[in-house]
Amino acid sequence: MSALPVLQQPRTPVDNVQLTTAILGHIQVIAARERRMRLNWVPSHVGLRGNEAADEAAREATRQPAVTFTVLPSIHRTKVLAETCHCQCRGAAVSLVVQTSRQAAWHAQATDNQPLHLVQQLPRAEEVILHRFRFGYGTVEELRDGFEDRPCEHCLHQGCVQ
């Protein structure tokens, strides 16, 4: 986007924030002194006083071996990088948990780690059962199945579940 539309827009700039903010600050200082200012777009810079000097300074800057002024990334770019890092770290953590946990592996396979959006409200007891089932925990009936043939430690009856 060219400089004039960026300076005219009412919303906060997304790119080149430092430069745009500095220019807008200078414009406000000039306006506070009750001076009029007009910004004009000139399609060709040829013949403008100072343009050749600015072009020469730009050419000279490209010949320098190192960066003399660090341009900070825009706020938008910083947010994109932070979100990308967050997603990559989260993905690595989920992969590690899936490799080490049977329940997490089952949940990842069954739901692709996406949240379950229930169409209707369920009673709390049913939500708990569904939640436990989604995470691969056994139900009470499945737990009892493993104890049917074992004698009770307290009363020594076969298959007693108390």
Report on this structure:
InterPro entries: RNaseH-like_sf, RNaseH_domain, RNaseH_sf. Residues 1-63 form the RNase H type-1 domain. This is RNase H type-1 domain-containing protein. GO terms for molecular function: nucleic acid binding; RNA-DNA hybrid ribonuclease activity. This protein folds into 3 domains: 3-63, no CATH class; 73-114; 115-162, no CATH class. The protein is 54% helix and 0% strand. It has 7 helices and no strands. The chain has helices at residues 3-8, 17-32, 51-63, 75-100, 102-111, 124-134, 140-145. Helix 4 crosses helix 5 (102-111).
Structural class: mainly alpha
Q: What summary fits the major beta sheet?
A: none
Strand content: under 5%
Distance between the termini: 74 Å
How many helix segments? 7
Estimated radius of gyration: 33 Å
From the spread of the alpha carbons, the general shape counts as: elongated
Determine the fraction of residues in helical runs and give it as a percent range: 40-55%
β-strand number: 0
Condensed summary:
One of its GO terms (molecular function) is nucleic acid binding. By secondary structure, this protein is mainly α. The chain has helices spanning 3-8, 17-32, 51-63, 75-100, 102-111, 124-134, 140-145.
Topology:
Elements: H1 3-8, H2 17-32, H3 51-63, H4 75-100, H5 102-111, H6 124-134, H7 140-145
Keywords:
54% helix; 162 residues; single chain; 7 helices; mainly alpha; elongated; 3 domains
